[in-house]
Amino acid sequence: MNIHEYQAKQLLREYGAPVADGRVVTRAEEAKTAAGELDGPLWVVKAQIHAGGRGKGRFKEPDAGDKGGVRLARSVEEAAEEARRMLGRTLVTHQTGPAGKQVNRIYIEEGADIERELYLALLVDRETSRISFIASTEGGMDIEEVAAATPEKIVTFSVDPATGVSGFHGRKVAFALGLKGQAYKDCVKLAGQLYKLFVEKDVNLLEINPLIVMTDGRLRCLDCKMNFDSNALYRHPEIMALRDESEEDPKELEASKYDLNYIALDGEIGCMVNGAGLAMATMDIIKLYGGEPANFLDVGGGATKEKVAEAFKIITSDPNVKGILVNIFGGIMRCDVIAEGIVAAVKEVGLSVPLVVRLEGTNVELGKKIINESGLDVIAADNLSDAAEKIVKAVKAAKETN
């Protein structure tokens, strides 16, 4: 689960990390009052969306201006005006895709005199099963660009969970960032604060980019991205309360209500599969035969008829879907349950695109019988390769017909 920058900074503040004072506004008329509560002479006005690259982004609406989603203001009135221009507008960045995201919140915070921009992050390293620090002197840039162009400028190390974080780790980060004096001391302290937050709140990623050294020699977390392990949210109602459903894909949000693992993609062939590995293999083979998957959807091993029906409805609600491939290998998941769910969903929402079904495993004959006797216009497939080839051909044929 992702949260906004202003929410991440509130968590940082609770753990003692250095952040600027700021105010969040959702209405333009609140902006002047919010800005007036902060010390000048510089204010930073930031669009709050769940995507990076805001500063380099552009708004779709001309009246929003062409300054991107992070703007500087030198008066309370200017800060309020910039907030007004951005609220309710659609910001497009390299992470949002061409559709962009509507800006429903603006964060106004005090400006800073920046001497250096650095990069610091913590994440779960799946190779070592430990929390790792990532530090770089190249702050303010996408870390992927730094890794590609100058990988030697990135320092990474993990923390042994048996001993936990210590001053040694903080000094290692400070040394990697080339810090001295007060900034060095601030960094040693900050490393411990971030690690404590990471562990106690079940964070997946904590990225501060940039971490700045100000002209007074102190550190400050200028921006922060944070997301959490969704499987651990039951332990953190205070984190769950930060969820902004307006930032999520409506289909993914609906899927989460039924405990379905769904991720929307840009293709045109909807997929319903049981098992994450099989779902990824299905997506791969669709691409192999020249198609593009419209989603990742794992209905899980213990899906009910109702859950399968909801999954099918979510797939068909995507206007980009021009064909559907159901690929079930029944182990724990029974093929007859899948078949009943598909039939129930089609009877409710209809079927206007080609549907290919491949069933194998537990109760496969009963599942095929249910499909065959349903009267649905279904294309049967014998194996995964056959299924992918048939759905790609069917979608192409439907396009040519239309």
From TrEMBL:
Binding site for Mg(2+): 209, 223
Name of protein: Succinate--CoA ligase [ADP-forming] subunit beta
Keyword Ligase: yes
Record field: catalytic activity: (S)-malate + ATP + CoA = (S)-malyl-CoA + ADP + phosphate; GTP + succinate + CoA = succinyl-CoA + GDP + phosphate; succinate + ATP + CoA = succinyl-CoA + ADP + phosphate
A GO CC term assigned to this protein in UniProt: cytosol
Keyword Metal-binding among UniProt keywords: yes
Matches recorded under HAMAP family: Succ_CoA_beta
Signal peptide: none
Family membership: Belongs to the succinate/malate CoA ligase beta subunit family.
EC number: 6.2.1.5
Organism (species): Oceanicella actignis
Cofactor: Mg(2+)
Annotated substrate binding sites: 274, 331-333
Record pathway: One-carbon metabolism; formaldehyde assimilation via serine pathway; Carbohydrate metabolism; tricarboxylic acid cycle; succinate from succinyl-CoA (ligase route): step 1/1
GO molecular function annotations of the record: ATP binding; magnesium ion binding; malate-CoA ligase activity; succinate-CoA ligase (ADP-forming) activity; succinate-CoA ligase (GDP-forming) activity
Domain spans labelled ATP-grasp: 9-241
EC class of the enzyme, as a word: ligase
Pfam families found in the cross-reference section: ATP-grasp_2, Ligase_CoA
